[in-house]
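TICKET #2291
ISSUE: user wants both folds in one file
ATTACHMENT 1:
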Amino acid sequence: METMTLPHDPYNVIITGVGGQGNVLASKVLGNILTAKGMDITIGETFGATQRGGSVMSHMRISAVSSWSPQIPRGMAHVVIALEPIEALRVLCDYGNPETLVISNDRPVHPVGVIRGEMDYPEKTVLREWLMTFGRTLYLIPATDEAVKLGAPILANIILLGVLAGAGALTFDRNDFSQVISRMMPPEKLGINLKAFDAGMGMV
């Protein structure tokens, strides 16, 4: 893999979702891709009540020159990748800024309060308006819908990594992804993961 040039050093990425959506795996895949390109990666993870759909968040500090503390300072995220749109809002309230790139799945995971009828979940148009107030560029992607077409809803996380690659914020491509995922997954899962990554790149 070729080395990369970062637009900022450190470059701060947050990957967020709820328990069971696969955002921890996404952070490991992205971290391995960037490590192979010569970057120094620090990852800090926070876990909510994952068995009840609690928040899960990975902070990634990416640098070409040194290691950094795993906690991204407030208001200093360059990219937020969210597997659930309300989780994107939650993160952006603390870490977003006018230059943040936001990549979010559009499929909601309703909390217990919504399921019980005790609260409302925002409409998609409202969510889009809110998300657009927090960052420079928004990709609100039907990642789960595309993953279902591939036969595995969990692949929404890989689709969003494909969107990140297609957006060009970090210079990695299908070949970089293929080299890493082939070391992390059994051979029979390589093809479907490449299809998911390609689907994400094609959405940009």
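ATTACHMENT 2:
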Amino acid sequence: MSNCINMVLFINNQKKEFSDRLSIVQLVQNLQLQSGRGLALAVNDQVVPKSEWETFSLNELDKVTIIRATQGG
């Protein structure tokens, strides 16, 4: 039996494994995303306000949708 903790998340419908539980801020850092304006995240179809990203803990098999606003027209 392995001591390695794996947490599976589905990020934009792609299965990803992480070695530990994450907050949204940690996930954003782990994925090397720019967390400035124009980035929104939903967990299990519920948008999580940016003010809650540091304290919002992700759980096994959560479905995370990352939305990026783009400029142009």
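RESOLUTION: both attachments delivered.
EXTRA DETAIL ON ATTACHMENT 2: The chain is about 10% helix and 35% strand.
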